[in-house]
Amino acid sequence: AAQDMGAKPSVIDPSATVEGAAIGQGCEIGPKVILAPGAAVDHGVKIGACVRVEAGTMLGKGCNIAAGVTIGKGAKISTGVQIQDNVTVEDSCSISMGCVIKPGSRVQAGATLGKGCNIGSSVRIGKGANISTGVKLQDNVTVGENTSIGMGCDIKPGSSIGKNTKISLGCVVGPTAAIGNNVSIPQGCPVPEGKKVADGTQVPFGGKVM
Fold it and tell me: Which contacts (CB < 8 Å, 24+ apart) does range 30-37 have?
């Protein structure tokens, strides 16, 4: 006989709208949630009140989506991701396994977050940005469109990074630093607190931010 894996039915609040969405076992769907037709929710997902998930979006196993979150069309939210209150994830974003996104942050269309990223409160991640594995974006950080941030970088609170900029792996960007557009910062290069880095600056490998 097949083993009973302890699967339990999902609990869906009567005020939730889920018709046409696929929902796994052991999920908890809160009040006034809207899952658009074609949304897919894997096993063991918790969704808080007033969350909206658009068509074609997939929520991976064991995700925890807090109250007031909006997730656009065609997004992929992987296993064990935690999205806290009032976060917006726009269309076609990809959020990898184990990421945490804190309250009030916005991830714009087509942005990608690697495994285990830790995104603070009120962070703005621009369209098409690529945030690599294990990056920390602390509270009130802004990342521009099509910017890439390398593995293990730590971007301190209140700093801003412009569009089409490349921050290589292991960089620490100090609090309230302002890095412009089309900038390149090499591997392991620190950016001091409050430092302004002009548009188009290309720091050579082994160089310093002057």
Answer: 30/67, 36/73
* Cβ partners under 8 Å of residue 5, min gap 6: none
The pTM of the full predicted model, rounded to 2 decimals, is 0.94
CATH code of the region 109-127+134-204: 2.160.10.10
Per-residue model confidence as pLDDT tens digits over 161-201: 999 999 999 999 999 999 999 999 999 999 999 999 999 99
pLDDT digits (tens, 9 = 90+) for 115-134: 999 999 999 999 999 999 99
Level-2 CATH architecture, domain 9-92: 3 Solenoid (2.160)
> Distances from the Cα of 164 to the Cαs of 12, 145, 195, 200, in angstroms?
43, 6, 19, 10
Identify whether the C-beta of residue 117 lies closer than 8 Å to the C-beta of residue 97: no
Domain positions in the chain are 9-92, 109-127+134-204
